[in-house]
Specification:
Blueprint: E1 3-9, H1 12-18, E2 22-28, E3 36-42, E4 47-53, E5 57-63, E6 68-73, E7 81-83, E8 86-88, E9 92-96, E10 101-105, E11 110-117, H2 119-130, E12 141-145, H3 148-151
Antiparallel strand pairs: 1-3, 2-5, 3-4, 4-11, 5-10, 6-9, 6-11, 7-8, 7-10, 9-12
Length: about 150
């Protein structure tokens, strides 16, 4: 059954518990009143979420072994983000291995999106779209730029 929810948070502890497909711990590193938004859309096989944070933060996430997550920025004119020591620009897509963990550091306000499928559904989608299975290897994070046509 499809569902959607939208949340607004002023407490990072509540925010971190609402993020899907991962155990998340957030520490705000900037001064000011924390504010974040989160929208979740759950379809029978595809989970999507979009979030925004107004202050710099450091986060640790342990991803579920039952989901294959893909992350991306939803605003091109924002500061880059550091993920597990890798500088990630707003035009990159980050593919995270199911069951892996990562650290994320933001330098200011960010808007982000993610989607996840089961590893089996990701493989099937790859066969249908690109003619081969796609897989997210455990404990691996990879990153690559969006094609220009995807950003316009």
């Amino acid at each position: 059954m499809a569902s959607s929810q939208t949340f607004t948070f002023h407490d990072p502890d509540l925010y971190q518990h609402a993020v899907r497909a991962a155990q998340v711990e957030i520490v705000v590193t900037g001064k000011g009143r924390f504010r974040s938004g989160l929208t979740r859309i759950d379809l029978p096989r595809l989970w999507m979420q979009s979030g925004d944070d107004n202050l710099p933060r450091v986060a640790w996430a342990q991803y579920s072994a039952s989901r294959a997550p893909i992350h991306f920025s939803t605003r091109m004119n924002q500061a880059s983000v550091e993920i597990s020591g890798m500088e990630v620009s707003p035009d990159d897509i980050v593919v995270v291995g199911e069951g892996s963990s990562q650290h994320t550091r933001t330098k200011g306000p960010v808007r982000w999106g993610s989607m996840s499928l089961t590893p089996e559904d990701l493989a099937a989608a790859g066969r249908a779209v690109v003619g081969r299975e796609l897989e997210c290897r455990r404990s691996r994070t990879s990153c690559g730029p969006l094609q220009k046509s995807c950003r316009d």
